[in-house]
Amino acid sequence: MAMIEVKNITKAFGELVVLKNFSVDFDQSGVTVILGPSGTGKSTLLRCINGLETIDSGDILVDGLSVREKKNLKDIRIKCGMVFQQTILFPHLDVLENLVISPIKILGRPRNKAIEQAKELLNKVGLMDKLHSKHNELSGGEQQRIAIARAMMMNPKALLLDEITSALDPEMSTEVLKIIEKLAKDGVVMLIVTHEIPFARRIANRVLFLEYGSVVSDTSNEEFFTTVKNNNERIARFIQNIHH
Amino acid sequence: MFEQYLSLTHYDIYFFLKAIGMTLWITLVSITIGTLIGIVMGLIRCSKNKIVSAIPLIYIEPLRNSPLVTQLFLTYYGLPVVANIVLDAQAAAIITLSLNTGAFFSVLVHSAVKAIPKLQWEAGFALGHNRYSNFKNIIAPQVLRLLIPSAITLYINQLQVSSFVSLISLIDLTKAGHILTLRTMRPFLIYGIVFVLYFAISYPLSKLAQRLEKKVAFNF
Fold it and tell me: Which CATH code for domain B9-216?
């Protein structure tokens, strides 16, 4: 059984159908990069998996749990941590409290254990010196790294990363992408929506290309950036446009 | 002669102190009750259900859009006529001010909750919080920080409009001023003291509101 099974889902916003009869499975390993033009359903797919959007038809199973049942959403969201395009730290809490509040309140983890894990993760993302900083004392890249650490605090089985560098300048993007590469090397399962082609080439095991709410291509990294790119004009043009 | 004009008896001073006590008492009780009413009504206003969220407006809109004086008169003079309920001046004052405070406070609560970006909610949900946990641990602390300065400003305002209770013969600070003026025939002195006393209570609170606003403010 795949970890995430997206079964024939349709999702529309008013009259705009973003995902139509969409199916795909994600295994319990590796990094899947999701590429495609804007408005093609990439972010919507991640949000549907995390239960932030309700699907109109079909089903999504995360580790066997259906997103259509409200009682499953908490467990699904713990299993699939999500990091957003905009950095959304809780402004009334410092960095440490941002990290520990959810494991303590939701998972019932003892505070000292949560703090221990928070320090480990902050070390990993290179921000141990920002333990007691507030969000407005951090750069965009630092906030995003902390958002990643915060998601990892819940020990998710997979991370859903939705264009996490789009709102950052190139320097901050590089900081964040380094962390993602580190996590990938550590074996964290990830679904990444991104426009960073070189990053995708380096990190992805699998590449999905979406257009008009459907899967145009679903291949390995190597195959996508060679065979598929060479044989599909649309994809080749997309990569060229993004890369410049 | 000016010294004679300024002098007040011990009784006058005691009378003022009692009146300050009454003003503070009815203000404190009514802002406490009003705050609780406002929180409940404000949160109901935040409901996703359009019908449920509209229900508090039946209470809020009339009270926000009519003079406190008329509300006071309706409570004190009107209730005995329409419902055979006779309230003493203090009870009528507290009930009216509480309901009035509640109406304005509910708007503050509703506005503060709506001011929290949707992404804050989504970030909480994405970490596994349900609606209740999200509100309690993530949203409410932020709402409180947004609310505090506006709430203090409202409370200062309610302290000052509480002077209307003098119109139903409750001996608050304003009524005390009226009575002492009639007795001493020194309106400038008496009302000057009343003015200073209201200012002395309100000004530190308004400074506190400013300091708190700076301390708790944050940008999303």
Answer: 1.10.3720.10
